[in-house]
Amino acid sequence: MRGILAPASPHFGRAPGPARRLAAVGCLIAIALAPLPALAAEAFVTAQNADAVDVVDLDALTVVARIPVPGAPAGVALSPDRASVYVTAPEGKALVVIDAAARRVVRTVPLGGGPLGVGVNPVSGAVYVADWYAKRLWEIDPRSLAVAAEIPVGTSPSGIAVTPDGKFLLAADRDDDALSLVDTATRERVATIPVGTRPFGVTIDREGRRAFSANVGSNDVSVVDLGERREVGRVKVGERPYAVALAQGRAFVTDQYGGTVSTFDAATLAPGPRLAVGEYPEGIQAGPDGRTVYVANWESNTLTVIDAGALTVTGTVKTADGPRAFGLFLR
After folding, report:
1. Where would one find the signal peptide in this protein (predicted)?
2. Whole-angstrom distance, CA of residue 119 vs CA of residue 122
């Protein structure tokens, strides 16, 4: 899994220092989960170069635990009850399960291939893992942690998002310039939706009506109507957009090469301010109350805190080397 140099690759290879920028552009997963508590108390941030997951206290803005996770941890998602944290280990070819309260690894599920994106069904709790090297997702039973099925999708699947009712999921198929829409009951792909160039991160709104894909190749975000199963808009953002978060009626987009977060109105698609964050921002998620947005900065080794209403940076947390927060990481 080391040494992948393709644009927007998943950082399986780990280049030191400034060379990381030349090594690869990352991918993201945004997963629609069950409703969070009123406030997120912790963030579980995958630190790929450190082979660790940092637990960040969001009140104190301090790392309070560092959990060893071998295999270059990248993707992250939480169970609907927030008791378990699922982490992909691309170089370990496995899914790692963390007890969130105990802050320790309790299971490692061998998968093979290139496990990268991970998402959770908010109704059934089923865990979906994207195989970067094959046109498939694995579905993992949340109780037995056995592979329940393999779901065919497009080429180089990365980001995964599940609708709030758990009935459908989206996979961003990077090399097909499209999203796969999958019926979670039948495990069949029911639509292929063309979007921009090299989609990676995909996020679904809380109503389950619209999806937003960050297209790293065309430097824009596609807006998809899930009822009509088609792209209905496209918004230019910064260079190498990676992930999208939604808060306060706005979309927040990490621009890897710009070191910024682009914003735009989620309804009208009118552009808003662009905010400077850390170097090479990747994972992004809004807090459950929509007041705060958190951004992981791969090169700066930081987690940036943004006031979503005022559109200002309000804090920074130092993390372990190579933070990805590659998915939905708030607990």
Report:
1. 1-40
2. 9
Task: Please state the rounded mean pLDDT for residues 185-204.
Answer: 98
HEC secondary structure over 224-257: EECCCCEEEEEEECCCCEEEEEEECCEEEEEECC
Residue 249: CB atoms within 10 Å? 11
Six token digits for residue 286: 């809004």
What CA–CA distance (Å, rounded) separates 126 from 123?
8
pTM of the model: 0.90
Q: What is the tens place of the pLDDT at every residue in 58-113?
A: 999 999 999 999 999 999 999 999 999 999 999 999 999 999 999 999 999 999 99
Confirm or reject CATH 3.40.50.1220 for domain 19-327, answering yes or no: no
pLDDT at position 326, please? 85
Q: Residue 100 contacts by C-beta under 8 Å, 6 or more apart in sequence?
A: 42, 44, 78, 82, 83, 84, 85, 331
Cα–Cα distance, 321 to 284 (Å, whole number): 17
Domain spans of the chain, in order of start: 19-327
Residue showing tokens 């190498």: 240
Distance of alpha carbon 307 from alpha carbon 314, whole angstroms? 6
- The most distant pair of C-alpha atoms in the chain lies apart, rounded to whole Å, by 46
Q: What is the pLDDT of residue 39?
A: 62
Q: What is the DSSP letter of 111?
A: -
Cα dihedral 204, 208, 211, 212, rounded to 10, equals -50
Q: How far apart are CA 106 and CA 90, in angstroms?
A: 18
**Contacts by residues 55-61 (CB-CB < 8 Å, ≥ 24 positions apart):** 55/103, 56/303, 56/317, 56/319, 58/287, 58/294, 58/330, 61/305, 61/315, 61/316, 61/317
Residues in the chain: 331
Task: From 104, 259, 87, select the one nearest 96 (Cα to Cα).
Answer: 87
